């Protein structure tokens, strides 16, 4: 009997793996056509400075894929597949260009003087011409480096640390901001904060979720903010969903918030209207 169960489980496991593999193959196949087919778009999620002024600090660009064959596919699913298949190189370049063009347009119209924050995958950073590409993209868009922030995650430090550090330092010297995303999850090491030219620490949503109910999570968040400040960094809280969370974070000295409480990620066509109504609500208050 034991043997049978064991064998049965093995078969089920194999079927699961086969199914996942099939799904990946299908997604990859359709993803290959996504740029040319104009199936990709960016959504922009506002980030607000806390404190008296409460200005909009900028926006994070978040990739969306509406596939004619598969419908909307979550970035959590397709970005991993894009990374494994190296499709993330052209896709990441498309994201950067689109985000810079959009922000340059907004700055020119006088709608914002803030930053656009763009997520990077490790394989993009490892491209030999990565830094040149970024600077060239900025130039072509007419966007100043001080309007761009690049978001990296701790997964980036799994290898080639020195190479990545020197590229980031080079970009940082031009005025581009560097954010460490999802901080506190994964293979965090506090030494990265010292060794890398980081300007922003983004506290992962999983910590913010614990506010206000979990006292220990709230106090851990407060410690992360203090460490960030000791390192001279600006600290952003991700995934802020309630007024209570906003207030606790403000009291704790957090610099910026991002999350549904402020706004969901917005399609390009809604950003200007959101900015205008945000400014108006501040005047009314
Ligand atoms: P991330 O960079 O940590 O982005 C934040 C994610 O949290 C986004 O999910 C956003 O929609 C979501 N979010 C923001 N505020 C809230 C909130 O209050 N509540 C909840 N429940 N969620 C919130 P999204 O857009 O699905 O993106 C998931 C991840 O995919 C991103 O996490 C990022 O790691 C990756 N990603 C997205 N766009 C790109 C891209 O252009 N390039 C790369 N390499 N990765 C990207
Ligand atoms: Mg991010
Ligand atoms: Mg994040
Ligand atoms: Mg996150």
From TrEMBL:
Top-level taxonomy: Bacteria, Bacillati, Bacillota, Bacilli, Bacillales
Keyword Transmembrane: yes
Span of the entire protein shown here: 708 to 992 of 992
Keywords (A to Z) from UniProt: Coiled coil, Membrane, Transmembrane, Transmembrane helix
EAL domain ranges (all copies): 24-279
Protein name: EAL domain-containing protein
């Amino acid at each position: 009997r034991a043997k049978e169960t064991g064998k049965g489980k093995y078969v089920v496991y194999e079927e699961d793996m086969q199914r996942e593999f099939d799904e990946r193959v299908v997604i990859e196949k359709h993803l290959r056509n996504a740029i040319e087919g104009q199936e990709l778009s960016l959504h922009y999620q506002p980030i607000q400075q806390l404190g008296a002024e409460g200005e909009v600090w900028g926006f994070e660009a978040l990739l969306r894929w509406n596939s004619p064959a598969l419908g909307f596919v979550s970035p959590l699913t397709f970005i991993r597949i894009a990374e494994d298949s190296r499709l993330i190189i052209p896709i990441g370049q498309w994201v950067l260009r689109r985000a810079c063009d959009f922000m340059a347009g907004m700055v020119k119209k006088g709608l914002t003087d803030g930053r656009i924050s763009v997520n990077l995958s490790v394989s993009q950073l490892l491209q030999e011409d990565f830094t040149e590409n970024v600077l060239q993209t900025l130039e072509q868009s007419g966007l100043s480096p001080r309007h761009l922030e690049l978001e990296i995650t701790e997964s980036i430090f799994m290898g080639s640390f020195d190479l990545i550090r020197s590229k980031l330092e080079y970009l940082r010297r031009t005025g581009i901001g560097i954010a460490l995303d999802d901080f506190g999850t994964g293979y965090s090491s506090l030494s990265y904060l010292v060794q890398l030219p980081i300007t922003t620490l983004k506290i992962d949503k999983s910590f913010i979720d614990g506010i206000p109910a979990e006292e220990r999570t709230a106090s851990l968040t407060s410690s992360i903010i203090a460490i960030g400040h000791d390192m001279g960094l600006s600290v952003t809280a991700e995934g802020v969903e309630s007024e209570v969370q906003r207030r606790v974070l403000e009291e704790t000295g957090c610099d910026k918030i991002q999350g549904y409480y402020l706004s969901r990620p917005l399609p390009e066509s809604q950003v200007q209207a959101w900015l205008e109504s945000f400014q108006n609500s501040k005047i009314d208050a």
